Amino acid sequence: MKLAIMYSEDLFSKSLLSRFKKTMGQYGIEQVNSLDEADQVLYITWGITSDYFYQAYDELDRLQKLGIKVIIVGDLAVCQSHLFNKYEGNPNFTIIYEPSWVYPVINNIAQVNLKDTTQDLFLHNNTLPFYGNTTSLAFLLQKGCKNRCSFCQVHYMDSKLQDVPFEEGIIYLTNMINNGTKYITLSGENTALYGLKRYGRKRLHEFVRELSKVEGLEMIAVNELVAGDMYPELLMEIISNPKVVNVSMQLETASNRLLKKMNRNYQMRLFDYYTQQIRRAGVYVSTILMGGFPTENKVDMWLTTNYLRKREIITTGVCPYRDFEGYIPSSQLKQLTRAQVEQHANHLVNQAQLINMGIYAKQFGKPRPFICLGSIRNTSIFESAIPNTYAIVDDCPTGFDAGTIITGIPIDIIEGPIEKQTAFAIRMH
After folding, report:
1. Residue ranges of the domains in the chain?
2. Per residue in 96-141, pLDDT tens?
3. pTM here?
4. Cα–Cα distance between 345 and 336 in angstroms, integer?
């Protein structure tokens, strides 16, 4: 069976896809890169911005006309399955409604009866290795969010809070460390809320503390923190734990005016309080920006880039704003044109790259050189800023897409020559 795979993926679906690819060969499934060669298509869905609806419908309608068998999985199949009612009754279309879709897809294609029955498989599905091995990995510690930010897909999906069991998570990651993992990124949709659903209180600080005690683990990063959901114990753990080297704080914009329209649960005064405390402790702060949010102007963008430069915050991506189906508050705002959105996003990308270069340049001569992942358009600026640094500048199958700006991982935790990765890697001298 020859299978083409079409997808837009998040951390959870990337880990599932990685597991699927490792398993499918045992059941006679071969991945191909052309629809002309494919007997069947695996279509992995994600968020629900309206432009993604149109893209998905266009692609699925094209597949329908070609008469190819299609299996639809992912976020939309789980949480917004009614969107695919138009394909009900079509014998060529199968919709799998289960979040963990690896075995159901194999069962459908190979006509077998595999089952996910262990907690270990659940934890494995939450794990995404970087660089093709488990020396460095991301672990999805929680899902869901109680906030209702106007730009975010989470509350349109299954936004119920979900937590990995504390003890089982520590045991699982300890086993990974004992087998060679040295760098762990704890992630979620709003990671500071970890523990709230399962234990009735926030426990991220406790998880970080216990994980850091495991011998062999060198560094911890914590992603997707929201300033309005941070709390004193977590801040203290971040700034006092020597293994915590980076935290990712959701910013989007440094304009209080836009933060209010976004329905964020904080203003810049609170965000800046946490940022200054963390940076003073020598921990890096990274973030993702949004370009082209309704009513955004040059002043808003200047506030954002000026703040990044002032506080030395690393930008790991810039997301162009996309409207959401049925979200009335957003649709009532004055929308920018698609061209304006792209223009704003490109401006933020260019400014963020330069700011990142300046931040990383200060690392020159320090004991740990850095790997920088992302799309580096101006390598001459990058090269002069950071000698002896790698940069991945093409599509990267290791968890970072081309177009990601820059993030830093110490070189000495990567095992094996990075040049052998599928992604194109260059050495800066």
Report:
1. 2-110, 119-365
2. 887 778 888 888 888 877 765 444 445 766 776 665 567 888 888 9
3. 0.71
4. 12
